[in-house]
């Protein structure tokens, strides 16, 4: 990968574990990384989140683009930033002009975009004329007038984010005008069907700049795309309705239920999960879904700790709270995650010091039974047998869920 000098790259902020899947967040015209202040911290729980600023906005140098700039030029800056960070393939979400950059990347650089979310944006921005006129006005008069009208263009009545209004006021006029040039020339409607990245469209139901019909047009053209409309949101939905935007993005990029079930099977085994699913009732269905999404789809998929390390922690916690049915299940899981019988014994011995001898004594009895099943003559992987506690009762986890 070729890398650019720092002064030729957009300003960026990185959050989350360096080993987590990368997610780049693009801004709208006139704003900065602050647009994502209420969303990025939540996304960084499962991703390496990188927010970037447009040229002349926030902390980015104004001379990264000039008159006659295109969305392709902005996309090239994003790729240069990704290269400098050592990121080859990434998920991407962008608002308005930032969303247009995402569409360009998905069309022209499909090998780089793992998944895409386009928020309050469009495949075209109502023709070149209005943007060319805005560019001329800004070059002539600056940004004060646009800052005065930003609330009505960006938010629903009565809502404002002063920090973002200040971003509009303090952006570099020449760089802002060059971004207007890019919007004037942008139209990808005839290329949308070529996008292969999983794509989510998010529309603000009260957005006058890029109304839901613009997002619907993209959703209808991109194979397999989905559309979410957010009530009570105008053009800057991540700032006005951050909880709704966060939920939509997490569901799209993380795929919690599907990924959670996948990890649940990898750790606990197909036989156990099949039994739990077979015993699911309307009463327990929501709990089963909660476990797949939260415990397995968020916690066990977090790359900060290995599965082996998570097994060590889980065994200790279960002993401490006396959850012996769950302990039996997780002794099996620990073996599947790479722990030996000796290492499991060492964990339980340490619990005798910190959780108490009676708790460790009961835990050793449960673990011995499970390990005998796993390692004894004619044993399989232990999944063919129903896990039972000392009274011969089936694991509670198999009837309700597992954690």
Automatic annotation (TrEMBL):
Keyword Membrane among record annotations: no
Chain ranges of the Carboxymuconolactone decarboxylase-like domain: 286-368
Organism: Streptomyces kaempferi
UniProt feature, compositional bias: Basic and acidic residues: 385-397
A GO term for molecular function: 3-oxoadipate enol-lactonase activity
Gene3D superfamilies tied to this protein: AhpD-like (1.20.1290.10), alpha/beta hydrolase (3.40.50.1820)
Gene: pcaD
Pfam families: Abhydrolase_1 (PF00561), CMD (PF02627)
Key words of the record: Hydrolase
UniProt region (Disordered), positions on chain: 374-403
SUPFAM superfamilies recorded: AhpD-like, alpha/beta-Hydrolases
Residue ranges occupied by any AB hydrolase-1 domain in the UniProt entry: 21-241
Documented EC number(s): 3.1.1.24
UniProt protein name: 3-oxoadipate enol-lactonase
Enzyme class: hydrolase
């Amino acid at each position: 990968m070729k890398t650019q000098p720092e002064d030729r790259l957009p300003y960026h902020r990185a959050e989350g574990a360096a080993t987590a899947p990368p997610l780049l967040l693009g801004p709208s015209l006139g704003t900065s990384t602050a647009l994502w202040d209420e969303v990025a911290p939540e996304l960084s729980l499962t991703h390496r989140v990188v927010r970037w600023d447009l040229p002349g906005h926030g902390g980015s140098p104004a001379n990264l683009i000039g008159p006659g700039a295109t969305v392709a030029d902005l996309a090239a800056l994003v790729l240069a930033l990704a290269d400098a960070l050592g990121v080859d393939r990434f998920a991407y979400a962008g608002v308005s002009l930032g969303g247009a950059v995402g569409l360009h990347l998905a069309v022209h650089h499909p090998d780089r975009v793992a998944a895409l979310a386009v928020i309050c944006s469009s495949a075209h921005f109502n023709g070149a004329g209005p943007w060319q006129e805005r560019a001329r006005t800004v070059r002539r008069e600056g940004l004060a007038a646009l800052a005065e009208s930003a609330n009505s263009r960006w938010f629903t009545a009565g809502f404002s984010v002063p920090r973002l209004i200040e971003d509009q006021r303090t952006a570099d006029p020449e760089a802002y005008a060059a971004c207007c040039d890019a919007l004037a020339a942008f139209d990808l409607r005839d290329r949308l069907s070529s996008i292969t990245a999983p794509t989510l469209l998010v529309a603000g139901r009260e957005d006058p700049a890029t109304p839901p019909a613009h997002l619907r047009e993209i959703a209808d053209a991109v194979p397999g795309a989905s559309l979410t409309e957010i009530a009570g949101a105008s053009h800057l939905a991540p700032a006005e309705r951050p909880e709704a935007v966060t939920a939509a993005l997490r569901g799209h990029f993380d795929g919690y239920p599907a990924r959670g079930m996948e990890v649940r099977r990898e750790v606990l085994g197909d036989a156990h999960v099949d039994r739990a699913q077979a015993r699911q009732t309307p009463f327990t269905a929501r709990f089963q879904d909660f476990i797949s999404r939260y415990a397995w789809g968020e916690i066990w998929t977090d790359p900060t700790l290995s599965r082996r390390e998570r097994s060590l922690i889980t065994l200790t916690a279960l002993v401490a709270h006396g959850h012996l049915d769950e302990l039996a299940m997780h002794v099996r899981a620990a073996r599947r995650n790479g722990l030996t019988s000796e290492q499991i014994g060492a964990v339980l011995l340490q619990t005798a010091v910190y959780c108490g001898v009676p708790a460790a004594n009961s835990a050793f009895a449960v673990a011995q039974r499970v390990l005998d099943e796993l390692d004894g003559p004619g044993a399989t992987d232990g999944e063919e047998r129903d896990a039972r506690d000392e009274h011969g009762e089936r694991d509670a986890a198999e009837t309700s869920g597992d954690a």
